[in-house]
């Protein structure tokens, strides 16, 4: 049985081996067939590659040549680049020079035309008699504080010195005046702008210069200055002395000075023995329509020392107080009245010119200035008088038949200067800091309104008189009052021991008793 099983298993194994042999032969044949097909494909691809290689060889040679050429160009590129840059720079430089030359020529022509336009405008203003307006911006000081509220809100036009720009609540506002002075401008720069106007009073014209602006904007500094750096007032008198000396061979001149203030709507004589005494403004009884102040003290000045004494005495009597906005805030309107009387020695022509230099008290908001009690009343009177000045300007601009000069002492006193018989200039003082932009905006708007007022050409006050009526060149008063004040021209009492009195004893009133026209 084992042998039969063994033979059967042997037979099955032989059958399986034969089947495996057949499978192997069949697989070999199939693999050989596939290999032949693949080999044929490979041969075909190889033939294609050989064909492509034969085709690409010329292109490869071309690329090689191009590559070699590019390598040579790259080696020489820095030199080419330098030459190209040099050439381009030369061309650009030449173009820039041409443009600069053209721009300089255009700028020169523009400035020449601007100066010509300004000259023509000034001449037109002179012929029309417009009030000239200049602005001066004070520097930012430590009193302005720090932070956003102390930043500068005022800018200037670099090509036009008559334009000023104000940034108010984030919006730029521009104003055009006759002249704008930046904080870098000196006292002499400002005076040079007004000195031609001042010298015209020697020729017999009435001249008025007044400073306007909020409190702390620098009005008193511009008008009075400091002993080391005087303002318009003292420089004006020094200029008048210089002009008078130049004409001394042909003309005989007398210069007299009065100083007054308007405090709480009361006119006071700052050179008088009793500065607190109330004065009144009157019409000349001669029917000329001119105004004068009976009893206003008039001193004849003949030297710079006399000027300094007058200013020192007048400044001592002027009312100033401390406020939140200004440590030495002027609480009154100050007026320096200079009268120049001259006689031509050869013809007998007599001229009378008046120069009114006015330092207005500063407008202020009571909430910001912290004014209380008497300071509050002062601020109310100041603002009321400045408001009256605004009403007068509005009436003059609109050419109303009635101009409310008598609404305040200030406008009544300035009536001659604002009614067409005077050359008038306003200096508007501007604070540049952010916290004062509302006041600065109001001041500049008011300045533009003032600038548009036409007063008419100023008239010269000259009279040809006979020599028989000019013995020793003694002057008659411009207008007589029935009872001229003796106080204004009497010598001071020897018993006065105060400092103002000691100054007064060094200053003697002019010899001829007469009320002083304003």
Characterization of the model:
This protein has a domain at 132-452: Kinesin. It is built from 11 helices and 19 strands. The chain has helices spanning 2-128, 187-199, 219-223, 232-246, 304-317, 366-369, 374-397, 409-413, 415-418, 437-451, 499-506; strands at residues 132-137, 154-157, 160-168, 171-176, 179-181, 206-212, 251-263, 266-269, 278-279, 282-283, 291-293, 299-300, 320-321, 329-330, 333-344, 349-359, 423-430, 462-464, 516-517. Strands 1, 5, 6, 7, 8, 9, 12, 15, 16, 17 and 18 form an 11-stranded mixed beta sheet that branches. The protein has a 3-stranded antiparallel beta sheet with strand order 2-3-4, with helices on one face. Strand 2 and strand 3 (160-168) form a beta hairpin. 33% of the residues are buried. Residues 322-328 and 467-518 have low confidence and may be disordered.
What's the arrangement of secondary structure elements?
Blueprint: H1 2-128, E1 132-137, E2 154-157, E3 160-168, E4 171-176, E5 179-181, H2 187-199, E6 206-212, H3 219-223, H4 232-246, E7 251-263, E8 266-269, E9 278-279, E10 282-283, E11 291-293, E12 299-300, H5 304-317, E13 320-321, E14 329-330, E15 333-344, E16 349-359, H6 366-369, H7 374-397, H8 409-413, H9 415-418, E17 423-430, H10 437-451, E18 462-464, H11 499-506, E19 516-517
Parallel strand pairs: 1-5, 1-17, 6-16, 6-17
Antiparallel strand pairs: 2-3, 3-4, 7-8, 7-12, 7-15, 8-9, 10-11, 11-19, 13-14, 15-16, 16-18
Helix pairs in contact: 2-4, 4-5, 5-11
